[in-house]
Amino acid sequence: MADRYLHLTxxxxxxxxxxxxxxxxxxxxxxxxxxxxxxxxxxxxxxAGDSAIxxxxxxxxxxxxxxxxxxxxxxxxxxxDATGVTSARGLAEVHxxxxxxxxxxxxxxxxxxxxxxPSSEDHHQAAAQQALEGFVRSLGKExxxxxxxxxVRIPAGAAPGAAESTLRFLLSPRSAYVSGQVIELTTAAPxxxxxxxxxxxxxxxxxxxxxxxxxxSVASVLARDGAHVIVLDVPQAQxxxxxxxxxxGATALPLDxxxxxxxxxxxxxxxxxxxxxxxxxxxxxxxxxxxxxAECWAQVIDVNLDSVLRTTDELLTSGTLNRxxxxxATASIAGIAGNNGQTNYAAGKAGVIGFVRSLGPRAAAEHxxxxxxxxxxxxxxxxxxAVPLFIREAGRRMNSLSQGGLPVDVAEAVAWFxxxxxxxxxxxxxxxxxxxLLGA
Length: 440
Prior knowledge:
The chain is of the alpha/beta class. 38% of the residues lie in helices and 17% in strands. It folds into two domains: 40-184, NAD(P)-binding Rossmann-like Domain (Rossmann fold, 3-Layer(aba) Sandwich), CATH 3.40.50.720; 204-432, Rossmann fold (3-Layer(aba) Sandwich), CATH 3.40.50.720. It has 15 helices and twelve strands. The strands form two sheets. It has a seven-stranded parallel β-sheet, sandwiched between helices. Helix 6 links the parallel strand 4 (148-153) and strand 5 (181-184). Residues 203-377 form the Ketoreductase domain. Its EC number is 1.1.1.100.
């Protein structure tokens, strides 16, 4: 559904009126396309404190395709290496580095602060590095004009190139609706990518709930990145599912993901195994707890959480998920902040977050598989188009970018998790919400 307010604020009279009334002034977001695959402008690389990763970070930034220019007057991206900030006094260098340049950033720009995990043995370092999180979350709410801010924590001993795929994603139009996020990397080495423009070439991906909406968009982006995609949805959605499959050159698998033999049928559809498993299927049965029948509770938990646990366990145990594989589940802002009338939905989505954080490290150690999740906020779909007007407008405006996201925003985040180069990204829950004011 068209966002008429966003269109209005893109006109001169609309800008004047909303400025006078003190209303939000969202900027149209620049997303990835063949015509605009990169940010339009140079990259400014700054340092606060004494960094031990300067050379390695420079190599990762070169891989973004952006020109690093220390004298850039209008940078499209700013990267601040703050890994060397180890004390409260050292935070003054963060201010000194960004204060002179933050206003000069181009509209729709990206700010990425590089930190390191807070230490359990040095409380001064831990305090300074944790301070960066509050700093970045606040900065994301200040900068406006469609710009975003993120914190990436790189641990000591990280493998060469561990941060490359993450920086390519965050410093690109693909991350347009991601802001105020903290991403903690592991020390795992990236898997090789033969073609950076098609990193999923030769890999097989399965997407559940893929007949329409976010699932169909995820399937489309994975296919764009070179994957052979198997699209799965309930038999009742078979017509839409087949249309999606035909459009993408994908394989349609009509199947209820809650069926007892779902994992076995998925394995049969992927005789050479799966490299990417995307749990996108989900339902709502909204009622307040006092009015919620047991069947409404059970249906939502079964589809949104239990099916994720069962199928992942069985596909890992059977070896259907290949080494180097990626599991990406769909959580929700509701699972982080809660939502009136959605105790069942929020419980299921919070459960997905617990699943990711617990299984990620073990799956990597035992199977060579990473496990991550996206947590969408207000995304423009047929479901949100049916929400009453004032509630819909509140959902759109209550984030740092003052607008709803698109299904492709979720899909781009899933595709980043799915890349071979993202082996160091594990156990993460990425909010794709424009930095929603709910759940902080």
